[in-house]
Amino acid sequence: MTTTDIPAVDGAVDGAVDGAKLEAFVGQAVVDMGAAISGLLLHLGDRLGLYKAMAGAGPITSSMLAQRTGTTERYVREWLGNQTAGGYVVYHPADGTYELPAEQAMVLANEDSPVFLGGAFEAIASCYADHDVFVDAFRTGAGVGWHEHDERLFSGVVRLFRPGYAAHLVGEWLPALDGVAEKLRSGASVADVGCGLGASTIIMARAFERSTFVGFDSHRPSIEGARKAAAQAGVTQRARFDVAAAKDLPGEGYDLVCLFDALHDMGDPVGAARRIRKALASDGTLLLVEPHAGDALEQNVNPVGRTFYGLSTVICTPGSLAQEVGLGLGAQAGERRLTSVLHEAGFTHVRRATETPFNIILEARP
Question: Distances from the Cα of 228 to the Cαs of 52, 131, 211, 222, in angstroms?
């Protein structure tokens, strides 16, 4: 497309529209249009097991893939066309076969890979399903509770976060906290607040057999799912799960309390952090994991920031607004704002312990 292909815009002021900039932005929007529909097809490929069937299989035909996955060849062939056009799949025209490269398989097929993103697209698909709910929320200002979302959000979120927790939590994040890893090896009492389906709790329970862990979440179906996951992982003797809101955190004297991608979702993060501080032992530690963000919007103008602002608009901020206080902290709060929340709650020592491209990890002490 060239600038001469751009039609005149009715009502545009002469000289107000730069043709080259318009053309560039149309191109950007077309790319996003392809990404939007391809996100749906990625979710379909994940749900139907198409990527997993292609992983390590080498070049295969659409008929072979359909047979392996119990799907219909004509649909699969069209899906493969989209995947080829997007660079997800390599097409070999000489023999009409398709191949999923090993690098793509790590992102699309291997759920143990630290870069697996199938869960992200499952969560995003749930948001499209909730479109009418968000339209109403924008117009009324009402919140949208976690329990009000399409159920794929819950399974998508745990599949999105679990690979990162498995890759970094035990080997990097916990050792970055002063003296915490040593306590866990000796035997510590740990609370995982906002644990969801329990991925983070179970990862820690597997690694530290002398410690005891309890996961809390206000969403009862998630707690029930976490209990099943703990039984499957064989850690029920040292990991249990109960329904409780952060502000009502049961127990005292915890050596470690963890908040994984949860504080910004809370209606009253200051109140939650204040209760956590009181529940900690005098030498206890709060591990706070939050989405990576700078302190100002202009610092977050990048693909990761774009994604987190998008998810925050339809998940995190509405979830907070649906609760008491409804602070609406948002997923891109940044370290300065998070530190301010913790100081207001009574924590005297807050520092950035470490980070990843997707998370900042803060250590807080009473």
Answer: 25, 31, 20, 10
Q: Is the pLDDT of residue 147 over 60?
A: yes
Q: How far is CA 252 from CA 25, 200, 278, 279, in A?
A: 55, 21, 7, 4
Domain ranges of the chain: 40-108, 118-365
pLDDT in tens, 323-349: 999 999 999 999 999 999 999 999 999
Residue in the block written with tokens 């997707």: 358
β-strands 280-291, 359-365 pairing: antiparallel
| CATH 1.10.10.10, applies to 40-108 | yes
Mean of the per-residue pLDDT values for the chain?
95
Radius of gyration of the chain (CA): 23
The CA-based dihedral angle spanning residues 313, 314, 316, 319, taken in that order and rounded to the nearest 10 degrees? 130
Class of domain 118-365: alpha beta
- CA 134, 136, 140, 145 torsion-angle sign: negative
How far apart are alpha carbons 177 and 183 in whole angstroms? 11
